[in-house]
Design a protein that fits this description.
It is found in: Cell junction, Plasmodesma; Cell membrane. With 279 residues, this protein is α+β, with helices and mostly antiparallel strands. It has three domains: 48 residues; 100 residues, 2-Layer Sandwich (Killer Toxin P4, Chain A); 94 residues, 2-Layer Sandwich (Killer Toxin P4, Chain A). The chain is globular and about 80 Å long. The chain starts with a helix and ends with a helix.
Amino acid sequence: MNLSHSAIILTLTFFLFLPSSNPLSDYTTLIYRTCAAQTLNHQFSLTLNSLFQQLIAQSFQHKFFRTTEAVDDETAISGLFQCRDDISKEECFSCVNLLPQMSNTLCSDSVSARVQLDGCYLHYEIEETAGESRSNSLVHRECGKPVMEYVKFKELMEEGFATLESGILNSNGFYSVNYRSVKIMAQCEGDLETCDCSSCVNDAVLVGKEECGTSLSAQIYLDKCFINYNFYGNSVPGARSNGNTERLAAIIVGGAVALFVGFALMSMLNSRFRKDEYE
């Protein structure tokens, strides 16, 4: 009994100090949302809910779907969803299932809205206004931590962006590449023509260079496409080194704590064994 109890303690201690494996990205994370100021009426609301159900049903088989629902003889709602091409169909279905409720919560009673998660997005609007926004309209951008010296960094990103622009031109609207120490991705709206897709991505790259030019990561969302990039690995040209220093210090402290706890447990177990021998 004592040995079993001791084994359980040692096993729990071992798993307690195993390094965590948190995912780099959660596809259900909210990136941004846009909501129209104009509100909808009851009939519009009922039609919108019907449209949401159509989109959810289609997300089980497709990663992009656009449809239209008539509100009355004069008005209709155009809606679509799209998932990132690098997530599975099951993940796409789970992601899209979250969007209607999030839209109702974040954009309650709006006649048009867009809710963008990391792995998928939903967009609906009155059909007569659909397509009025231009493919190069910036709707959201996030720039990551800056670098101190960016000459080499800028050279590397120029090469990476050139690879991205070439790759998207010869793709089906989605392109992802690990270029040296950076992961770069681009995706266009599912029914966008190749030329328009390439033009949109080129515009997004220009925004990235102008507004996030010295950032280690960025997310640029235009109306009809998005790009993002993120550095990985231990060596980044021109990056501040304090992050690595803090990480090293955390590892040392964590190791010291683990050794101390392990030593204390072993001492306790040895004392218990000695006591059992005398009894």
